[in-house]
Write a structure and sequence with these properties.
The chain has 142 residues and is mainly alpha-helical. 77% of the residues lie in helices and 0% in strands.
């Protein structure tokens, strides 16, 4: 089955879904990086970034679970949907955000000018996948 890439309605819906994934991921990711940036620790940069990615995934799953639960899903179904439908998107987003941070700062460092760039890259990386999933399967994060 070939995918039609010009469905405006699905681009808008997938952008909305990607936005919610980005909010959840960035809360955990940036929070973790900030914690380690401003506290004494002996962890390597890669360890901090892996922890940031893990926390970003967890906060995104939590946020999406809450959103789905509030929109009439059972708690179990909301959680399973958040994990099953969004995990690849969140993993791509987290990887893109952390690689951007590392390439621009040389570490796990939050600066005022890196945050918008990391958010932009974190948004555009999974957005086509989210569109594809919605277009092909009629499934989205929310």
């Amino acid at each position: 089955m070939s995918i039609v890439w010009n469905n405006r309605k699905n681009w808008v819906k997938s952008a909305h879904n990607t936005k919610w994934c980005l909010i959840g991921c960035s809360i955990g990711d940036f929070g973790t990086i900030a914690y380690f940036q401003f506290s004494e620790h002996s962890l390597t940069t890669i360890t901090v970034m892996l922890l940031a990615m893990l926390n970003g995934l967890l906060t995104s799953i939590l946020l999406e679970t809450i959103i789905l639960y509030r929109s009439s899903f059972s708690l179990r179904d909301a959680f399973m949907t958040a994990i099953g439908m969004s995990f690849i998107s969140m993993l791509a987003m987290e990887t893109a955000m952390n690689l951007t941070d590392y390439m621009l700062t040389g570490g796990a460092i939050l600066t005022w000018w890196v945050i918008p760039i990391a958010l932009f890259v974190g948004f555009i990386t999974p957005w086509p996948y989210n569109y594809w999933r919605l277009q092909r399967h009629g499934k989205s994060c929310h």
